[in-house]
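A.,

Following up on our hallway conversation. Structure tokens first:
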């Protein structure tokens, strides 16, 4: 009995949160200078956080552009959506400006949120490219680990529809 309890603690403490579990709380500064917290949206809106490894790289640029280009489709849903990386605020602000983004990039230079979500992949601390869908209730609806950077925005809109996220 004691062993089973220890095993459960070890597996949940070591791994990333799973679908159906409460999303780890965070409070991160965005590229727009505002601070965003999971608590700001709980009970109000679903959230999508598209984590990417590093600003100003090819795949991350394509992904962020795709989200921008799908803005009208995403705006149909009652969802707050963000990109996120472990880059600092200055870097992400410049990156967002260079791409003329209409949504903020969340900045996690301390890697706290990325670690809580199980996304830090190497000694440099770059986050894995995952998109996290969080319901209004604060629970994880879906974790997409197979991101097509060129169609990321359209893919997010399709997933929101599939998940039954409310439309405005």
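Then the amino acids I'd put at each of the 168 positions:
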């Amino acid at each position: 009995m004691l062993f089973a309890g220890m095993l459960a603690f070890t597996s949940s403490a070591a791994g990333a949160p799973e679908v159906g579990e409460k999303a780890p709380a965070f409070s991160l500064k965005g590229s727009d200078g505002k601070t965003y917290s999971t608590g700001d949206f709980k009970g109000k809106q679903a959230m999508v956080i598209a984590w990417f490894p590093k600003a100003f790289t090819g795949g991350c640029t394509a992904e962020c552009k795709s989200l921008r280009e799908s803005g009208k489709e995403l705006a149909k849903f009652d969802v707050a959506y963000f990109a996120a990386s472990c880059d600092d605020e200055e870097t992400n602000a410049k990156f967002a400006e260079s791409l003329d983004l209409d949504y903020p990039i969340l900045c996690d230079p301390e890697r706290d949120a990325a670690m809580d979500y199980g996304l830090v992949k190497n000694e440099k601390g770059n986050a894995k490219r995952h998109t996290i869908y969080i319901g209004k209730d604060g629970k994880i609806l879906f974790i997409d680990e197979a991101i097509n950077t060129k169609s990321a925005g359209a893919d997010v809109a399709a997933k929101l529809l599939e998940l039954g996220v409310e439309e405005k």
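Residues 63 and 150 are 6 Å apart (CA to CA). Curious whether your intuition agrees with the design.

B.
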